[in-house]
Write a structure and sequence with these properties.
2 domains
Length: 356
């Protein structure tokens, strides 16, 4: 059903664009703030991110920014957190902290004077390690004879299951010790050193690059320490993941005000930890944001992810950028849901979910 709805919205957006009605639809939904989710910005996908639907090539990112500048107001995240983003507001975010954001996205944002927020997975800053799903993706593609049988057995996949399906199953069945033992076994059999692979890949930002970006209009948020599926962790482990990242970020940049759940996955314990740490905003994936005049202490905001494949014709290019339909001008396929806000009466204990 969600896929069918996405197709209907996609084609509706293309039709509205070619009928030159998208400015009207954007105006009608002007009070809804869009929070756009990006990851990498590589000209050509490396095997670390291939088929993860997480890359926006620089030329396509240019098309996105050009459309946003024409039709929206790109605002900093704290404008949303203050509850005063204004009409036609868009917040640009990046997850994980890829080096390609510094190399390819940051110069484009700086040239146009646009703000953005990057959510960092702190264990991989300075390329000391790899995010587990990036490393597993690379191992499956470059050392498949060793990696495939082990991964298929651990995650109960049929032989020769497509790599994206293996990774999806790995996320669904995520257990830290299972993933760690699997990667250790593959590295040992392939004669690899994880630290050397990470250093050679140079996949993520360094603290030096992060500090340079912070001098511009880029702020940074918490994306956990190691990028787990939080919903598969006990409450104490979730607190450790988010808390360790918060400590690292605070020591380098000052305390971040926003948290983004890895993979958009979370549970009640995740929200409790976020409330206890006093985040001003917490990012999910998918949905629509209706922002009132004031944002409570901890809010759940919904982001849509620009896909590398054509989404709609709203930008007038083959790549497809913004879909100006009843999906509220979100980028790419999305699940349209009612967004709820996390209302915190007592940050350390009581919470309730209320409709926006």
């Amino acid at each position: 059903m969600n896929r069918l709805l996405a197709q209907v919205l996609r084609w509706s957006g293309m039709l509205l664009y070619w009928l030159h009605l998208h400015p009207l639809v954007i105006w009608l939904a002007r009070r809804r703030t869009r929070i756009l989710l990006y990851h990498a910005c590589e000209p050509t996908e490396s095997d670390f991110i291939r088929d993860l639907e997480s890359n926006t090539p620089p030329d396509r990112f240019d098309a996105h920014l050009n459309f946003l500048v024409r039709h929206y107001r790109v605002v900093p995240l704290d404008a949303l957190e203050r509850g005063a983003p204004g009409d036609r507001a868009v917040v640009i975010t990046f997850d994980d902290g890829y080096a390609s954001v510094y190399a390819n996205a940051f110069p484009r944002l700086r040239r146009l004077g646009l703000p953005a927020t990057v959510y960092l997975t702190t264990d991989v800053v300075d390329n000391r390690a790899l995010i587990w799903i990036n490393e597993l993706n690379w191992l499956l593609r470059n050392h498949g004879a060793v990696a495939r049988p082990l991964a298929e057995k651990v995650f109960a996949c049929a032989p020769r299951t497509a790599i994206p399906a293996v990774l999806k199953r790995a996320c669904e069945r995520y257990e830290p010790s299972t993933v760690r033992d699997l990667l250790d076994a593959i590295r040992a059999r392939a004669g690899l050193d994880g630290g050397s692979t990470a250093a050679g890949a140079r996949l993520y930002l360094t603290w030096e690059e992060i500090r340079e970006m912070a001098q511009g209009d880029v702020t940074f948020g918490n994306h956990t320490a190691s990028h787990p599926n939080l919903a598969r962790l006990r409450a104490a482990a979730q607190a450790d993941e988010i808390g360790r990242a918060q400590g690292a970020l605070t020591s380098h940049l000052g305390a971040p005000t926003s948290l983004a759940y890895p993979f958009g996955l979370h549970d009640v314990a995740s929200r409790r930890v976020a409330a206890e740490l006093g985040f001003a905003s917490v990012m999910e994936v998918g949905g629509i944001n209706d922002v009132p005049g004031a944002v409570p202490r901890s809010s759940r905001s919904s982001r849509s992810s620009p896909r590398p494949k054509p989404a709609c014709g709203a930008c007038g290019t083959e790549s497809g950028v913004l879909c100006p339909t009843s999906c509220a001008g979100r980028i790419g396929p999305m699940t349209v849901v009612t967004v709820e806000r996390l209302l915190t009466e007592k940050a350390h204990t009581e919470k309730r979910l209320g409709p926006v």
